[in-house]
Specification:
Helix content is 28%, strand content 28%. The chain is α+β, with helices and mostly antiparallel strands and 240 residues long. The chain folds into two domains: 109 residues, Ribosomal Protein L22, Chain A, CATH 3.90.470.20; 99 residues, Ribosomal Protein L22, Chain A (Alpha-Beta Complex). A five-stranded antiparallel sheet has the order 5-9-8-7-6, covered by helices on one side. A hairpin with a 2-residue loop joins strand 1 and strand 2. The protein is globular. Bound molecules: coenzyme A. The site of coenzyme A (COA) has 25 residues, from helix 3, strand 3 and helix 6.
Length: 240
């Protein structure tokens, strides 16, 4: 029996599985993930043991989600450890990515054809109280200038709060998904200024890469949607 699967869906960039992470329990209580834990390989269980109690549930839920997504595609990647950059270590012919927040982990998986590399990210949908003067206003710092390019900031300039805040988080999430897809191809840190994106209401995204070291060329795509109270973003990058 699989762990607490929240959804399994086909997205344009791959098979996506979400796994609920237990909350309201001791951080190291992995009980509701136990069926998935039992299905992991010994190497994965050993790696899990080396993690802090706070990291165990998210790492485990992410691994379970990725194994489930691969199984849905008829693929078995064997034990999925972590490579030196922090990405899931997958065999030739397979590409996949993981993201987790407090209550939910997701994984995206696909066959690796033509050098395809994919990424996924998850962010809770920001709460949208009507104005900063009202109770419940989200007082987290504004990350727009760190995450967005001058062109993106200009496109957002006319957007009123609180929609603006949601757009900033959406840009952040799409760029994290892009990073997870690009990083395995170029093996270096990619800054938030190296991609300009324009998310559209239908879930499509216009992506323009401006890689500082001129790697590539690459074809880069991204998509966004909402699921289980989260923004779910995906990216696909291939040599082109
Ligand atoms: C690595 C990074 C993307 C992780 O994002 P996060 O919001 O902190 O955490 P998430 O839960 O979404 O993702 C964590 C997962 O990312 C994956 N990951 C970590 N490093 C990775 C890398 N270099 N490449 C691909 N995937 C990676 C791992 O699977 C990890 O989960 P696990 O350790 O349980 O296996 C982020 O910390 C980071 O360093 N970003 C770099 C800057 C950036 O995004 N630039 C944008 C360029 S357009």
């Amino acid at each position: 029996m699989p762990a607490d699967v929240a959804f399994r869906i086909d997205l344009p960039h791959g098979r996506c599985v979400g796994v609920r992470i237990p909350t309201g329990v001791e951080q190291d209580n992995l009980l509701s993930l136990a069926p998935g834990l039992a299905s992991l390989a010994e190497e994965e269980r050993d790696y899990l043991e080396s993690l802090s109690p706070a990291r165990k549930p998210t790492w485990l839920a992410g691994r379970i989600a990725l194994h489930e997504a691969l199984r849905d595609l008829g693929l078995d990647a064997g034990p999925i450890l972590t490579d030196r950059r922090g990405a899931p270590e997958l065999p030739d012919g397979v590409t996949g990515s993981i993201s987790h927040k407090r209550t939910l982990a997701v994984a995206l998986a696909a066959r690796r054809l033509d050098g395809l590399s994919i990424g996924v990210d998850l962010e809770p949908v920001p709460t949208l109280p009507p104005s900063p003067s009202e109770p419940g206003w989200d007082s987290r710092p504004d990350i727009s200038s760190r995450v967005m390019t001058p062109e993106e900031l200009a496109a957002l300039a006319a957007t009123p709060e609180p929609v603006r805040r949601r757009e900033v988080v959406l840009h952040f999430s799409i760029k994290e998904a892009l990073y997870k897809a690009i990083n395995p191809l170029i093996s270096r840190y990619v800054s938030f200024q190296e991609a300009t994106i324009l998310p559209h209401p239908d879930g499509s995204v216009t992506v323009t890469l401006a890689l500082a070291k001129q790697e590539g060329p690459f074809l880069a795509e991204a998509r966004w949607s909402e699921i289980s109270g989260h923004l779910l973003t995906t990216a696909a990058v291939r040599p082109g």
